[in-house]
Amino acid sequence: MASLKREVDNLQALERITAELRARIEDTKNGVGLEEEDEELTKLLLENSKLKHRLAILENAIDVEKSGGSGKASASIGKSFTPAVIPPHINTMVSVSDHFLDLFTNAIAKAYPQLAGTLAIISPVNANAAKFGDYQCNSAMSLAKTLKASGINKSPRDIAQEILKQCEPSPLVEKAEVAGAGFINVFLKKSYAIDALTNILKSGVKAPEVKKQRALVDFSSPNIAKEMHVGHLRSTIIGESISRLLEFMGHDVLRVNHVGDWGTQFGMLIAHLEDRFPNFLKESPPIGDLQAFYKESKKRFDEDEEFKKRAYSRVVQLQSGEANSTKAWNLICDVSRREFQKIYDRLDISLTEKGESFYQSRMIEVVKLLESKNLLEFDEGRKIMWPTADKSGIPLTVVKSDGGYTYDTSDMAAIRYRIEEEKRDWLIYVVDSGQHTHLKNIYLAAERCGILNPEKHRAEHVQFGVVLGEDGKKFKTRSGESVKLSDLLDEGLKRSLDKLIEKERDKVLTPQELKAAQESVAYGCIKYADLSHNRTNEYVFSFDKMLEDRGNTAVYLLYAFTRICSISRNSGEDFSDLAKVLESTKIELEHEKEWKLAKTLLKFPDMLVKISKDLLLHILCEYCYEVSTVFSEFYDNCYCIEKNKEGQIVKVNRSRILLCEATAAVLRKCFHILGLKPVAKI
Fold first, then answer.
1. pLDDT value at position 39?
2. DSSP per residue over 238-262, as a string?
3. What is the pLDDT of residue 531?
4. Three-state DSSP class for 32?
5. Which of 617, 588, 608, 471 has the alpha carbon at shortest distance from 530?
6. What is the DSSP letter of 474?
7. Quick one: pLDDT at residue 391?
8. Which of 129, 171, 241, 624 is least enclosed, having the fewest CB within 10 Å?
């Protein structure tokens, strides 16, 4: 109930903002007089209609909820339902599934007013079953059960026929027909596909219209004074791709690196720094291997009582802001930052650091807030907080018995800062599955104390499984230590170069081209191997598998992309200015393989909408592979360039080359979201 009210409030606020838009819609008299090329207004029409449609559905759901779920609110459902506006012309790629959802939800409301607000069930048809259409509306079966419960007996097929009669004309639909027990098969209109693909070539690949949010993505988060290892790989890669996806969708995104830069371990590091580099206040200490430096200090801390006492005193000094200890701490952090940045530069990762130390003063304030609300309890000297009022689950330790703070405290301070000061309404924590209980408790506690309002804020834990070695165990070195990320990337470069030389690419590429291809393959295959697996599962890290040039791998996709891009270059004609080419050549979709490829490209907005809901990026990887394989079918069956026996070009099918360019544009955008860097030659 609360979540429904929250979304209604958000949508009502947006309705007020779109008052001017509604005036424009009224002026156009349902689209009469709209210019076909008025792309911006078409987008606004779509977005506003979806907004009104969703608002009505949610208000209806609240009515039903208030009536105890008895269905007695059906009269008000029919009365308050606002149908979505179906624009008369669409010339850009839109979410086809969302469009058909609006179309058939409207039709259901017209056919059966007592069921107005019931969402249509839309599903794409397998591309190999094109005779059954491209999409299906499968609502009739469930509606037959609902109607029967209210005393109306109708067959699903009759219901489907009635729904189809009430369907408005759509610029996306060539024809729709009832089949079988009551399925409505929908066939896409080629003219829409041609317009949408032409728009891509003229204006680039655009994101579908969605409600814009202020998102924060917390990812990577290594510990200062320790090297990044394979355990940081998934959070870093997944977090970067989610950030890119949301930015492309138009959201305001903050990318945050919550580094571990505070705690008792810094006392021993500062004390060890004083001994190793006594002149550190005047000269920057040449710490070459920070990991070794950390191990040395830890060894002394465990074995030398005097050193341990001094380490504790340095922690106290650091926390009180003493100048020398603060200087030493900053020096250690800077060494780590430089090492982290080397990894981020190699993987093309962009982050803003806000580590645990940033929240020190805010921890004091969050403790005061919890005390003012009487949410803290004493437990064996500690101050704890139960995440829920019924005191179930695991309590947070907010203040330790010695008066110090914990990860629970800093995480509560962080979520408060992010919501109240950064004004974020969508929080995404990209953290391993082992932290699920902890983050769940943080979200619940933040809600209980009034920081997080589920009616206004979306807080998600994007969890992921561990990386396994080829032996099926946690990925480690032979000596049992975590694999350093820098070593892993170096090995990737070596393996990718070996693969390229095996393919004799070193004989046809310049040294610069070979280096670019080596890095593209190495870093691309590491990222793609991670993202192509469902992130909630573990996956086996295997260079041999990820460097294969067949199947759903980065190598296959990068090769396929390079081949697609080379077609226009090899045509002997100039395709550098596509807008100019389109003045004399139009895309034609006469061959069945041309049409199949076009329909596959039109799925792109649907993919983005789906992924933005569950943040599962393997869906985009599967889509990339589908595009590539469908393109291969097209290329094998449809000549783009025809040559005679002497190898001379005798015919160039410009329409098909434009289709190649549209394919390349969609794949290029997918690659950007996934963090892959294609190269001109490979």
1. 52
2. HHHHHHHHHHHTT-EEEEEE--B--
3. 98
4. coil
5. 617
6. B
7. 94
8. 129
Nearest CA among 232, 437, 427 for reference residue 336: 232
Who has greater pLDDT, 50 or 521? 521
Selection from 356, 290, 287, 353 nearest residue 318 by Cα: 356
> Burial, 563: exposed, middle or buried (Cβ in 10 Å; 0-12, 13-18, 19+)?
middle
Q: Which tokens sit at 13?
A: 């606020």
pLDDT at residue 47, rounded to an integer: 54
- What's the rounded Cα separation, in Å, for the pair 242 and 238? 6
Q: Any idea which residue has 């693909």 for tokens? A: 197
Residue 632: phi and psi, rounded to 5, are -60, -40
pLDDT at 78: 43
pLDDT band at 320 (very low <50, low <70, confident <90, very high): confident
Which pair of structure tokens corresponds to residue 440? 């769940």
Place 83 in a pLDDT band, splitting at 50, 70 and 90. confident
- Confidence check: pLDDT of 27 > 50: no
User: Rounded to a whole number, what is the distance in angstroms from the first to the last CA of the chain?
Assistant: 55
Q: How far is 487 from 136, CA to CA, in rounded Å?
A: 50
Q: Please give the C-alpha separations between residue 103 and each of 87, 131, 171, 346, in angstroms, as whole numbers.
A: 10, 22, 11, 47
Specify whether the CB–CB gap between 346 and 237 falls below 8 A: no
Burial of 384 (0-12, 13-18, 19+ CB in 10 A): middle
Integer angstrom CA distances of residue 453 from 210, 369, 422, 458, 529: 22, 16, 15, 9, 37
Show the tokens assigned to 336.
């780590």
For CA atoms 487, 489, 495, 498, give the dihedral sign: negative
Q: Which two tokens stand for residue 75?
A: 């009269």
Q: What is the pLDDT of residues 181-203, one digit of tens each?
A: 999 999 999 999 999 999 999 99
C-alpha 2/C-alpha 447 separation (Å) is 13
The amino acid occupying position 564 is I
Write the single-letter amino acid at 370: L
Q: What is the model's pLDDT at position 75?
A: 34
Is the whole-model pTM more than 0.85? yes
User: Over the stretch 569-580, which tens digit does the pLDDT of each residue have?
Assistant: 999 999 999 999
Query: How far apart are the C-alpha atoms of 656 and 585, rounded to whole Å?
Result: 10
